[in-house]
Automatic annotation (TrEMBL):
The keyword ATP-binding does not apply. It comes from Leptospira alstonii serovar Pingchang str. 80-412. The chain crosses the membrane at residues 14-33, 45-66, 132-154. This is SpoIIE-like protein phosphatase domain protein. SUPFAM superfamilies: PP2C-like. Residues 102-325 form the PPM-type phosphatase domain.
Length: 326
């Protein structure tokens, strides 16, 4: 677009408003000077000053328009829509573990982040006695700071798990380490926190879990029904746990062959459509109705349903983690 087109676009945008403001301003100045006691020479100087000031205001307005400080409506809408992204899966591709599929369990995770680096995370690994440790969490915020905080939790989880420890103890030790880091490094933001669910599963299907995180769903193959399981424990935080009461943090249940655990972050059910309605209970209906044969297809179909709901964009990181007992 050349200068003449910019000028034309500028006047199309401001319309008669600028001309009316200019005319009104000059009329007020002329009326004031005509009734004043200034000499003819002083009036001429003041007339020229007023004209110069009006010119300066118009010039600055046009420059702001050119530098897009004053945005056309369509550009403003485009700027607002940048917060609704199509999602990014690079954290999963580069950092998160590959699926497990052995004689005891099938474990599959899928994540889509709002930014290339997000706050959602998951991890699974085995200890020296063959127990499976599976974690899923959501660090507050978006972007690199949330991602770094998540990576710290993943790293500590990998270092702290032992066959004779339990999920509650591991979370306690992660929080102790975070407190030491915060005390020794004042630049660490003490308000950072994450929801985190940590599960320990033995080969026979006995599961222990701890941590504050959104509820998870257990599908029982024998009855064909889903059961919502509440979480209990602590945040990963140096400040958020002080107000918690009656924390048990040690819970367990058993899986039979074919049973599935569905864990997820709040981004799955808090995605909104154009009518500002959450995906919400549609998540639980989906988990009831979807065929349970293929965990990968479950994740694919769920993400497709969510993107249909939102019109192809997401407003938060979203993650699902599934555990099937063989």
């Amino acid at each position: 677009m050349n200068l003449l087109e910019y000028i034309k676009s500028y006047f199309q945008r401001v319309g008669w408003l600028l001309s009316c403001v200019n005319l009104l301003s000059l009329t007020i100045v002329i009326g004031f000077l005509q009734t004043s006691s200034f000499s003819a020479k002083e009036r001429i100087v003041l007339y020229l000053t007023a004209i110069g000031f009006v010119y300066l205001v118009n010039y600055v307005s046009f420059i702001l328009f050119l530098t897009k400080k004053i945005l056309p409506e369509e550009e403003a809408r485009g700027k607002m829509m940048k917060r609704y992204r199509k999602g990014d899966d690079r954290m999963q591709s580069y950092l998160f573990p590959l699926p497990i599929d052995d004689e005891n369990y099938e474990v599959y995770g899928r994540t889509l982040t709002y930014n290339p680096i997000g706050g959602d995370f998951y991890n699974f690994l085995t200890d020296s006695q063959g127990n499976y440790w599976i974690g899923i969490g959501d660090s507050v915020g978006h972007g690199y700071l949330a991602g770094i905080f998540s990576m710290m939790i993943l790293q500590r989880m990998s270092l702290l798990i032992k066959h004779d420890s339990n999920p509650y103890e591991v979370i306690e030790r992660i929080n102790e380490d975070l407190l030491k880091r915060t005390e020794q490094n004042p630049t660490i933001n003490p308000s950072l926190y994450a929801t985190f669910l940590l599960i320990k599963a033995d080969k026979e299907g006995n599961l222990e879990h701890s941590g504050l995180h959104p509820s998870f769903v257990v599908y029982k193959k024998r009855t064909g029904q889903n059961r919502i399981m509440e979480t209990d424990g602590k945040f990963i935080s140096t400040t958020m746990n002080a107000g918690l009461k009656n924390v048990q943090g040690r819970n367990g249940f058993q899986l039979e062959s074919g049973d599935i655990v569905f864990c997820f972050t709040d981004g799955l059910y808090e995605q909104k459509n154009n009518g500002n309605l959450y995906f919400g209970e549609s998540l639980f209906r989906f988990l009831e109705e979807v065929p349970k044969d293929d965990l990968g297809k479950i994740a694919d179909n769920l993400f497709i349903e969510i993107l249909k709901h939102t019109g192809g964009r997401i407003q938060d990181d979203m993650t699902i983690l599934m555990i099937r007992k063989k």
